Amino acid sequence: MKDDFKFLAKHYDQVIHAQSNFMWSEIIDRIESEVLLDVGGGTGRIISQLSDKFISRVVCDYSLPMLRIAKSKGHSYEICCQAEYLPFESNSKKFIIMVESLHHLSEPKMTIFEILRVLAKDGVFIIEEPNIEKWQIKIIALLERIFHMRSHFYSCKEIIDMISMSEIDITPIFKGNNFSLIIKYS
Questions:
Q1: Proportion of the chain in helix, strand, coil states, percent, rounded to 5
Q2: Residue 180 in 3-state DSSP?
Q3: In total, how many domains does the chain have?
């Protein structure tokens, strides 16, 4: 499998700045979990900002260069794996995030179902993605295509349609150029 971030890793945090205000901050405050799992967490730019809330923080990513940078920050445990095959027991994690990663995956639907397998029945899974309906994101999508990245940006509706399970509740939140989906079992 191709690692789109192999050569971008050492510059990633300078180009893609950490967020200072998450649109799902209120959800974090209500989570009763000691462990945060960040699937596709790359350099740990998101998880390092949440380090004071969780005793254990785990970054899963396919890119070893990205994980090396996450490790150098010292805020997490790093696991190199494909998001489609997570090395965790079913129903074992209460809080899982995937921030701006889904559009980089070759099997997004398979990844979502794998995360739902790992998600505890009383847990929360948050997907945050760039909103392809915004012109700024359309430019980013074009640039990623020019650089031969395997990105495919999905609309909020397309991701919701990927899930389409009766026992799942999904709450969309829109802010700026991104949207989040708050996903829980009913």
A1: 35, 25, 40
A2: strand
A3: 1
The tokens describing 126, both together, are 């948050």
Decide if 5 is inside a domain: no
25 occurs within a structural domain? no
Whether 14 is in a domain gets the answer no
Q: Bridge-partner residues for 180, per DSSP? A: 128, 173
| Amino acid letter, residue 186 | S
- Given a cut of 60, is residue 9 above it in pLDDT? no
Burial of 151 (0-12, 13-18, 19+ CB in 10 A): middle
pLDDT digits (tens, 9 = 90+) for 70-89: 999 887 899 999 999 999 99
Domain encompassing residue 154: 30-185
Q: Which two tokens stand for residue 83?
A: 């998001």
Q: What DSSP letter does each residue of 102-123 carry, written as one string? A: GGG-S-HHHHHHHHHHHEEEEE
